[in-house]
Structures are given as structure tokens and as C-alpha cells.
Amino acid sequence: MTSLPLAHAGHWLVNLLYLVPLVLIVAMLAVSSMRDRRAAAAEAAGSAAAPDRADESSA
Amino acid sequence: MSHRRLLAALAIGAGILVAVPQSAIAHGLVGREDLPIPKWLFGWGSSVVLIASFVGLAVLWPKPRLENAGERRTLSVPRILDPICAAIGVAIFALLVYAGFAGSQTATSNITPTFTFAVFWVGVAAASMVFGDIFKAFNPWRAVARVVAAIASAGGRRKLPAPMPYPVALGRWPAAAGILAFVWIELVYSGRTDPSNLAVLMLAYAAVQFVGMSLYGIESWNRYGDAFGVYFGLYARISPLRWERGALYRRPPLSGLTKLDPVPGTVALLCVMIGTTSFDGFSGGAAWGEIAPRMTDSLRELGFAQATALEIAFTIGLIAVVALIAGLFRLGITGMRSGSGAAEPVDALAARFAHTLVPVALAYVVAHYFSLLAYQGQAMAYLVSDPLGEGANIFGTATSTIDYSWVSATAIWYVQVAALVIGHVAGLILAHDRALVSFKDGQTATRSQYWMLAVMIAFTTLGLWLLSAANA
């Protein structure tokens, strides 16, 4: 009879503890990458708007 | 998040992780090896060391130190040593083949299996890290080929045809295939403990080497095609010593790896080296103990015999773990590419950073096979006196036994953890040093290595998990 995975939950939880540092570091890197992308997008949007304003003032 | 803020966050995170194990020690959890903390906390502690090393490198290592590091001639080595070492290598090879065929077919009584799997596979790898490429001097196939080439050149009326240029596309693929085949024999092949089978395989390997050397030249084939020549040669690049043409050179440790030419197959070879060792650990654990019987049963239902089904299941597992290691490394390189803004394709970047995997591979070998060398290596004391297992006592040591008490299980675990941590820190150092010469400034170089840090933490925790599962 196949036993339920829950029956071995303690065993698997201990194994999962090994993953904690990796999960933490990957989460930090993912957040960092996301913020970098947002900052780059905001910067690109800002620089695209700047020439428009310059055109308006010269007109 | 800015570069400085992320570095600070990493340092703070490392500090928190350091604090957590201290509280855990207070719980007095004791493992089978009488450890002061549970094994998974060693994984956390190792991650802390890696993160702290990473921060330290970012702050204290602003310029490349290993790339283009010089070397100094330390001493001259008498030329006579070259043929002496070669003769010893050929003699040992001949003895192992002879013992395999003529000796006892009980694995523990015959010198061939113990020498091959403990002394040669593990001992020479560790010795190469310390003393440099010693295997090249003792390589029996190279020695025989050189003698044959010298005789043919001196005595022949016609000059020998020049060897073909070694195909660039072939790179280190033959070595990768050779190491995979060797480990398959060690871990999967059901007849691996039969000394006569090993002797046949040794002769077959020698034949392949002679064909390779005759086609592409002795040195070219040894540099790229001879699986063991390449395998031990990679570890020898970690060493502060380099032997060449009657001289011994001294260099900073690890700097030899920066000169590794990233020909095709190099990344594959290193993934095979790490993946196969990982599978050796994994196959001894509870998880594989649950998976393997199910796979074997399914294969038997397809009509395979039990032994064949087991071999197929283990082969699938072996290849899957190698693929997992390759996937992890590729993920890290992909992250590095996006973090640095490099325009280089992922494959080229992977080849450029392939050398960072060499200390990781050695760390896995030391961690997984230290106990084999420490215990089974002692069997050489009685096997040299009675290599055939037929009752001889050549050196008077045939009655010696293996002392399982000279190193405790706790000590073995600490050696394993230390090996994994040191190997992965060395990998980080190499990656950081290479990033400094590869990317436009120090900040970009550090940023590019965030994902490499994640890969090193993944490999370290994987290694510790495998060891703990195998020892459980």
C-alpha cells in the first residue's frame, strides 16, 4: 500500500530546511532584479519625456 | 535595490543566519555522529561563509589577482625522473591488469578494484591538487606511446607521418565521455567488483588511448582526449606547483585554472564530474531508495531482467543528476548575463566561467570519497603484500587489517563540510577574479556574480544534503 506523503512530513521538512538559504538568496536576487528593471523603465520613460518638454519650450 | 544596499542586505542576512545556529546549539540536538548541531544547520552555516566571502571579495578584492599571475622557477628536476616515473606507471598498470586476470576474483582480496577506485580515482585527484600534475609523469599509456614513437622514429627507414590536427569541435568531449563511462562502471555496472572485468576494461581503455594518440599526437590527445589525463590535469591546476620539462614552477594556488582553455566539452566535462559524484551520494540516500525500486519494477514489467532493469534505472538517475547540475550552472550563467548586461551568448559566458567549477568538483570528490580513501585505502597495506589474494606475503604486511577507529564519523563529517565550503569559496574567488577582467568595472563585476553566489550556495547545500542523506 502506498503511504501518504504526509506520513513522512517530518522527514521531508528536515530535508527542506537545507533549501532555506538558497530560497532566501534567490528571493533577494529576484526582488533586486525586479526593482532594477522598474528603475530602468522609469529612467527610460523620464528621458523620453525630457526631449518632448524641450521641444515645447523651444516652440 | 542598489548594489551597495544589496551587499549590505547580504551581510546582514549572513549575520542573522550566524545568530540562528547559536540558538540551535542551546537545544543540544545531537546527531548520529555526535554533532553539536543538526546537519542542516551546517548547510546554513556554509551558506553564511559563502555570503561573507562574497561580500569580502566585493570589498577587499578590487583588482584581478589570479588572472595573469606569474610563476617562478623553483628548482630543476633531474631528467632521469621522467623515464623512472613512466616505468613505474607502466609497471603498476601491468600489475593491475595481471592481478585482475590471474588473481582472486573476490573484490576485497584483489588489488585491482581497491587501487582503481580508492587510490587512483580519489587519491591521485587529491594528490594532484597538492603536488600538481603528477599523473602526467606516471601515465602508462603516454609512456608506452612515447617509447613506441621514439623507437619508430629512430629505427624506421621512413619518417612517421605527422599526426592530424586535433579537431577543435571535439574539445574535451572525449574526456567527458570517458569520465562518464568510468563512473558508470563504478556506480551502475553490475560486474564492477569483478577484477577480471576491470582488467578487460583497463585494456580497452588503453587501446582507445593508443588510437587517439596515434591519430592526433601524444600531447594533444593527453591534453584533451585522455579522460584521466584531463581529469587529474584539471585538479592539478589548483596546485601551487607546475612541472614542465625538467623544472618545477611555483605560482599562486588556483591561478593555473585561469589559463584553462575553454574548448568545447569543458563545461560538460565539469558537469559530469560534479553530477556523477552527486549521484553517488544521492543513490545512497532514502529518496533514491524509494525511486529506484519503482523504476526497476516498471522496467521489469517491460520485460527486462532484474540486473538490466537496475542498471537502466541507475543510468537514468546518473544522467538526470548530471543534467540537473548542468541546468543549475546554466541558470547561474543566465543570471550573470542579465545582471552584467553582457552581450555575450550564454554558452560563451559559461565556457569563460567553466574553470570556477573545478574546485567545486574536487570538493565533491573529497567530501564524498574521503571515508573511502581513509578506510578502504588502508587495505593497500595488505594488498601490496598479497596483490593476487592468493596467500602471498611479499612485504610482511599481508596480515594487517583496516582500522575503522583511526578517524571517527564526526571527524569525517567535519572534513566533508570543510571540503565543500573551501571548494565553493575557491569557486567564488575564481568567478570574482574572472568577472573583474570580463566586465567594465568592479561594480558590474560584483553585480554579475550575485547569481554565481546563488549557484555556489545551491551546490554547497546540495552536497551537504546528499552527504547527510547517504549517512542517515
Describe this protein's structure.
The complex is a heterodimer of chains A (59) and B (472). Chain A is 81% helix and 0% strand. Chain A is mainly α. The model of chain A has no long low-confidence stretch (mean pLDDT 75). Helix content of chain B is 68%, strand content 3%. Chain B is built from 19 helices and 3 strands. In chain B, strands 1-3-2 form a 3-stranded antiparallel sheet, with no helix packed on it. In chain B, 44% of the residues are buried.
Task: Give short descriptive properties of this protein.
heterodimer, A: 59 residues, mainly alpha, 2 helices, rod-shaped, B: 472 residues, 3-stranded antiparallel β-sheet, 68% helix, 3% strand, globular
What is the helix content of chain B?
55-70%
What's the pLDDT, averaged over the residues of chain A?
75
Number of helices of chain A: 2
Q: How would you classify the helix and strand content of chain B by structural class?
A: mainly alpha
Looking at the chains present, what oligomeric state does this protein adopt? heterodimer
What radius of gyration of chain B results from the CA coordinates? Answer: 24 Å
Basic shape of chain A = rod-shaped
Please tally the β strands of chain A and state the result: 0
Structural class of chain A: mainly alpha
Helix content of chain A: over 70%
Strand composition percent of chain B: under 5%
